[in-house]
Amino acid sequence: FKSNFRAAPIRSVDVYNVMCNVAGITPLPNNGSWSRVVCMLKGQTSSAPSVSLNRCALVLILLLCFV
Questions:
Q1: For labelling alongside 67, which of 2, 10, 14, 20 has CA 20 to 30 A away?
Q2: What are the structural domain ranges in the chain?
Q3: Full-prediction pTM beyond 0.90?
Q4: Contact indicator for 8, 51 with CB cutoff of 8 Å
């Protein structure tokens, strides 16, 4: 993940794509959109509106706890 980066909130269906990327595996077809989360990762760029990366990480953790 990028340091000190602020990204727009992501949808719960996009968490799968992020987790697959972090784990280094190819995701199966799903309803998530890679374009909504790719901006958070190092080596990627986007001009999307943003929120704190810490908030995004917290949301991801909470979503994983309840899924």
A1: 2
A2: 6-66
A3: no
A4: yes
Q: Which two tokens stand for residue 28?
A: 């199966």
Q: Which two tokens stand for residue 39?
A: 């901006």
CB 38 within 8 A of CB 44: yes
**In 3-state terms, what secondary structure has residue 48?**
coil
Q: What is the pLDDT along the chain (67 residues), one digit of tens a residue?
A: 778 888 778 888 888 888 888 888 888 999 988 888 888 877 654 444 444 566 677 778 878 887 6
Tokens linked to 3: 């340091």
The answer to whether the CB of 46 falls within 8 A of the CB of 38 is yes
* Measured CA distances, 39 to 1, 20, 48, 65, 66 (Å): 9, 15, 8, 24, 25
